[in-house]
């Protein structure tokens, strides 16, 4: 397992997915089905808004430029797949499983992923507003070059998670558990709640200075002069 030395200690690096898609068949354009089984399919520029794919399995699939407004994917399993340029508001991925997945240049808002399991996932580029990851389990996850506005990690478990060239705005870490979480690469680190839960993470000296007022307030320290 790769690790980087940090101040005499080490932080374990996230293992990235290695997605190698086979030749894909084009999805026929019909509606998603609950508990459906989708294997080796390409979903391109489709309007999947409001459809119900709860409990479905997506294996070796590519979703490109699809609309996911209010799409219901609760308990879905997304495996060895790539999602590029997807967009939508209110997508429901609660209690879903994403394993060996790349999410690239997404434009999403109000995504429900509470109770979800993310393992070997890269979220690269794009912007996600109000991402709900409460009580989710993230292992080997990389956020890279993206903007997360008011992400909610309340009660979540994060292990080997990296933030690289991304912005976290008004993040909620209430009751979260962090292990080997590397925040040094975040270009903006704004913790609205749960700053005391940063134990188990690594931050830079500059980030520590930026967080000093929040940390002081959390500890009841009054700074004057």
From TrEMBL:
Transmembrane segments: none annotated. PANTHER family: BTB_POZ DOMAIN-CONTAINING PROTEIN KCTD9. Pfam families: Pentapeptide, Pentapeptide_4. This is Pentapeptide repeat-containing protein.
